[in-house]
Amino acid sequence: MAASDLLAGAVKSSEDSADMTSAPIQHYDADVVTIGFGAAGGCAAIEAHDAGANVVLLEKQPEATHYSNTRMSGGGFHSPSPDGEWTAIKAYAQAMFSGENLPHKLEGEQSEFSDALAAAWATYAPQNDVFMRGLDPQFRKAFLDGHGKNGWAFYGSPANTGDGIRMALKIGAALAKIGSVAGRVICAIPERRLGLKIGLNTSSVGKPHEIVVDNHGRRYAAERRITKDPSRYIFYKEALQFDTVTLTYPRIPSWMMFDTTLMNNGARVSASAASYNGIDWDQGNQNALRNGWIVQGATLAELAANIRAHPDNRAAVEVPLETA
Ligand SMILES: Cc1cc2nc3c(=O)[nH]c(=O)nc-3n(C[C@H](O)[C@H](O)[C@H](O)COP(=O)(O)OP(=O)(O)OC[C@H]3O[C@@H](n4cnc5c(N)ncnc54)[C@H](O)[C@@H]3O)c2cc1C
Fold it and tell me: Which end of the chain is least crowded, N or C, by CB within 10 Å?
């Protein structure tokens, strides 16, 4: 079926409830009401419709500017071959869900769920490819417009206000979390949307003309060597390291240092992601420089002094550079 076969309406979030009294009330009859037109709500609505139910799908965002996380996602999905061996696929999934393949057991591991999750994944994931290819092209485009397309941005839709978590907790859901975190070296500028800091993608770590240092000024990983890992997450894990002696995260914030060659070579963040969030980041980086989002120094010593003096730099206050 096409997505347009569903009846879509818009509801106001609880903060706007005062307005609801003045809005004309519309009545719909439905067997199933799904809330939210992301992948989860969309799939649930379609399945219910195809099973013969009369479905109403409620979405809080206006249609013209609807950006769910699904729509903003990279659209990457695992697709093991259906000819694969079920036990091997399950073992792979188990490693993903349990964190058992990682050198350190990370906080958040959910071993009590991982076995059942892995079994379900091994059963259903081999159907992903054929399922995705079988989707109506228009519908697939709406969901899978991804990286590099208009509207894509980190870190999630500005419509993320926690409604879903609140609703789930209210009905007693035990929310499980995935056992690991995918971090990234991003530029976190002091601008907020809906209370959330805006994180902007920086150019990939490991390029010529840039290095990354911690907030003591130490370079902690060989950027180019370590990013040979295609996912680059090895570097990001380095950036998230916790120091058990000082009980600090000395690598947060990290500082990506680059020279004028790179500075003159285009925007240092994803400009399309910036503009999606209403951030004026020009190709020449000049606005970012004026706003203090890029810290400059004519010499390395001057740059170090400016970073030390920056209010975001934690260790500069306590640890002199020469002892760090
Ligand atoms: C930048 C980015 C990249 C990602 N890349 C990938 C990837 O490559 N592969 C992958 O598997 N995952 C990826 N993810 C994660 C994945 O996109 C999300 O986990 C998934 O899309 C969540 O789907 P959802 O349907 O639960 O929520 P969403 O897609 O967020 O949909 C929720 C919908 O509900 C609406 N809504 C919320 N509250 C209400 C309410 N009270 N009333 C009515 N409507 C409401 C919202 O407006 C929204 O439209 C990525 C996420 C992001 C942000």
Answer: N
Name, in order, each residue with C-beta under 8 angstroms of 124's C-beta and a sequence gap of 6 or more: none
Asked whether residue 71 is domain-assigned, the answer is no
Looking at ligand 1, which atom is closest to the CA of residue 71? 29
The one-character DSSP state at 205 is: T
Contact 199 CB / ligand 1 (< 6 Å): no
For residue 3, the Cα-to-chain-centroid distance in whole angstroms is 25
- Predicted confidence at residue 105, as pLDDT, reads 46
Please tell me if the CB atom of residue 14 comes closer than 6 angstroms to any atom of ligand 1.
no
Residues 189, 97, single domain; the answer is: no
297 and 230 in a common domain: yes
Least confident of 64-68, 173-177, 310-314: 173-177
Asked whether residue 125 falls in the same domain as residue 226, the answer is no
Q: Mutate which of 60, 63, 69 to test ligand 1's pocket (most atoms within 8 Å of Cβ)?
A: 69
Task: Look at 74-78, 150-154, 275-279 and tell me which has the smallest mean pLDDT.
Answer: 150-154
Q: Which residue owns the Cα nearest ligand 1 atom 51?
A: 73
**Continuous H helices in 67-136:** 69-72, 86-98, 111-124, 128-134
Report d(CA 216, CA 324) in Å as an integer. 6
pTM over 0.90: no
Which range of residues forms the domain containing residue 263?
2-13+184-309
User: Do the domain assignments include residue 63?
Assistant: no
CB of 213 within 6 A of ligand 1: the answer is no
The total of structural domains in the chain comes to: 2
Quick check: 154 pLDDT over 80?
no
